[in-house]
Amino acid sequence: GQQLNQSPQSMFIQEGEDVSMNCTSSSIFNTWLWYKQDPGEGPVLLIALYKAGELTSNGRLTAQFGITRKDSFLNISASIPSDVGIYFCAGHSYTGTASKLTFGTGTRLQVTL
Amino acid sequence: DSGVTQTPKHLITATGQRVTLRCSPRSGDLSVYWYQQSLDQGLQFLIQYYNGEERAKGNILERFSAQQFPDLHSELNLSSLELGDSALYFCASSVEGEVGGQAKNIQYFGAGTRLSVL
């Protein structure tokens, strides 16, 4: 199935460092979402973006909806060990009248002390 | 806690068998979505139901089927199971599944059912 291109695929960082990841698509989306998934758990919504150019923060997390509506980035500042997990971007669109969410390939984040 | 409940949490079965996964959406949510996640893979959309009716199909095998009941809970039926069907299966729900307020289309995920086919 269709997936968004997410980069980097994985990253090792030290505690306290800032992290940046992004997501690109050939398709336009109405909404961009960022989820975090811990091992063996379901994805948890971190941030939702509704308008092109929108910049939204949630604590140490900041995300932006690209102006072309085909990309988004997520930044995490001052990373801590509990930031470990897989981060997925997701773009929302409509297929006919059906609501559709397309997921990125994921960025695996590992934080070392 | 997302408010989406999935049971069972783990399921171990043999090839050729049939299993049923259950999902209760968040209170008030009309749409239910099913996803499959194989080891170290992304989430693959299987099927969506809205208020009891099938609304969209993704990469769902013919051996798999789903339904949404009047109380809005949903079941995913997997039959003639193969080794490759071993995966995490997630259910998500949203208020709406149609064109509407964008916030109403945000999907909230359950904790998943881990299916192991031996």
Structure description:
The complex is a heterodimer of chains A (113) and B (118). In chain A, the strands form two sheets. In chain A, strands 2, 4, 5, 9, 10 and 11 form a six-stranded mixed β-sheet that branches. In chain A, strands 1-3-8-7-6 form a five-stranded antiparallel β-sheet, with no helix packed on it. Chain A contains no helices and eleven strands. With 113 residues, chain A is mainly beta. Chain A is globular and about 50 Å long. Chain B is 0% helix and 48% strand. Chain B has no helices and eleven strands. In chain B, strands 2, 4, 5, 6, 9, 10 and 11 form a seven-stranded mixed β-sheet that branches. Chain B has a four-stranded antiparallel β-sheet with strand order 1-3-8-7, with no helix packed on it. The termini of chain B are far apart. Classes of the chains: A mainly beta (113), B mainly beta (118).
Number of helices of chain B: 0
- What is the helix/strand order of chain A? EEEEEEEEEEE
Helix content of chain B: under 10%
Structural class of chain A: mainly beta
Radius of gyration of chain A: 14 Å
Strand content of chain A: over 45%
* Average residue-wise pLDDT of chain B: 91
Residue windows where pLDDT falls under 50 for at least 5 positions of chain A: none
User: What is the overall shape of chain B?
Assistant: globular
Helix content of chain A: under 10%
Category by helix and strand content of chain B: mainly beta
Mean pLDDT of chain A: 91
Tag the structure with descriptive keywords:
heterodimer, A: 113 residues, mainly beta, six-stranded mixed beta sheet, five-stranded antiparallel beta sheet, B: 118 residues, four-stranded antiparallel beta sheet, 0% helix, globular
